[in-house]
Structures are given as C-alpha cells and as structure tokens.
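quick one: S-adenosylmethionine bound model?
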Amino acid sequence: MTSGFHYSVLTSAVTRCLITKSDGIYVDGTLGGGGHAEAILTNLSGRGKLIAFDIDNEALRFAKHRLESFREQLIFLNGNFSNIKNILEKLGIGKIDGLLLDLGISSFQIDEPRRGFSFQRDHRIDMRMNQDQVINGWDVINNFSIEKLQQIFQNYGEERYSKRIANKIVKMREKKTIDTTTELSEIVESIVGKRFLNKSLARIFQAIRIEVNRELDSLREVLNDSIDIVNPGGRIVVISYHSLEDRIVKDFFREQSTIVIPSGYKYIPDRICKPSLKVITKKPIIATDEEIHINPRARSAKLRAAERI
Ligand SMILES: C[S@@+](CC[C@H](N)C(=O)[O-])C[C@H]1O[C@@H](n2cnc3c(N)ncnc32)[C@H](O)[C@@H]1O
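yep, here:
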C-alpha cells in the first residue's frame, strides 16, 4: 500500500514512462522520501526542473535534505496536489511536461507510531497526512454517526462486516472514547475474530485514512486538472496501491482517451471532440518478484501512464 523512504516503487518504470524531454518541467505530486524525485532528477539534464509537492511537512523536510545536491533544479511545495493548477498559476508556470503521483502514504508515515496510521503500532488514532488539518482519525471514530461509519468502512474499505463494526464502535464509545489504534483493533477483533483479523484491520484502517485525507476526491481533482496543465506529448504517471484508486485512474484514462459520439450524430469533427489522452500502459505495470522480495510494499503497486495528446 505504500512506497517508502528506503525503497521507491517501480522506479525505473517511473522514469521510463514519465520523462520525454530531459530539459522539461516535471511535477512529483507525492514527494514522500524523495526516491522517485532523485531518480527523475538524475535522468534530467541540468536545465530540467522538478516541482515537488507533499502535503506532509515532515516528508518535505526529509526529502529536502536528501535532494540537497539538486537544489538548483527543484522547487519544494507544501500543499495538496489537488490544488496543483492554482499553485502552478501562482508560480507563473503555465504547463508542465509530466506529472507523477505515487499515491497513499509513505513507509515513514506508517512506521512512525506518532502518526497513528498503523494497527501494528499502539498510538492515538490520527492518520492525518497534513498535520495542520483539524479533523483526524480520532474524530471520525468518536464523532461520526453509525450510518456514516458504516458507509466509510463499506465504500473505502470494502469490509463485509462494516455494519457490525460500526455498531460496536458506537456502543463502545458510549462508555468511553476510543482513543488508540489498539483499542480500535480490539473492537474489530471482537467482530471478525482472529483468523482474518489482519485483512479486516487493513481494510478498516485504510477506510478511515481515505476519509480523513479525502484521498479519492483529491485524486479525481488532480486527474481532471492534469488535462489542462500537461503539455501535448507530456505524460501522466500514477502508481496506486488498492483497487479503489486504481479504478479511478483506469476509468479516467479510458474516458479521456475515447471519443464518445453523442447519439443522433454519425460523425463529429476532430476539433470538436478529440480525445485528450493516449494510454501508454495497456495493462498496468507491476513489480517483479525480485522487487517484491526486496520491498514487500511493492506487491500491490500498479503503475498506469497516459500521454497528453
Ligand atoms: C507513497 S508516498 C511517496 C513516496 C515517494 N514517491 C518516494 O519515492 O519516496 C506518498 C506521499 O504522498 C503524499 N501525499 C499523499 N496524498 C497527497 C496529496 N493529496 N497532496 C500532496 N501530497 C500527498 C504523502 O504525504 C506521502 O508522503
């Protein structure tokens, strides 16, 4: 579900699919530990530029240090990639030659107990990528209605015991607030049992994380804007780690690369109804066994790429 500070996922596929001009302007929308950024910069000429976003200030601090030697070619931005169009406009950058999104959370975020993302670390439930954001995972668990919780677990986690888990959370919090990742895990365990517990925990924690960070909305927004900001011939490369994200990317690429002729028309002139994208990866690129062996987090990664026409 994540790539990390130590290993970036599908790095050679990223540079191969993304870079079409060595002196182009690129955006890494998900800087994280800076592994992909470093690979991109290594493949650019001294005139190429990279604009690197992360919503998480801690990630930016780490990556700035790592990428110190490329400082002249880099602009760091602390913000949500869903605001990319406005931010580029403010910087006076009209168009870019490629956009990379390596979705989800980094291994730093998941491994750091203080960030409260993981059911394998005992800490207060948090799960905010942006630590300045007001709403966090604790608020979701302790304040959302049964119906809303059930919907989140169902829609963002595809968890079959969503209703029972939501009911139990609401019952338990009547006695005492549910504060920690361990308390939440115990509630899930009391419903699903031990056998498939880790799978259910992964689904429930993923669902809360998606809600807290509005992950799917941000993805839809940046994909829509990518059509306006990427130059013809430039690429959009997305690595996703679960089926909800992958479906959004796949459907978007399909819609934007297909001409839909409105009913009643036999022929629509090109200039009126031209596709915006050409899909580069007919099937998603996935990690080799060797990469998965070195970095188990690459197991669920799917890379899709499209070219702006
Ligand atoms: C999987 S990690 C990226 C790892 C990175 N590619 C590398 O090579 O180290 C995802 C990063 O994207 C950031 N992120 C997730 N959603 C974001 C958003 N909507 N806007 C900006 N950054 C986001 C997370 O904070 C995290 O640091």
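Strands lie at 25-28, 49-54, 74-78, 96-102, 230-240, 277-279, 302-308.
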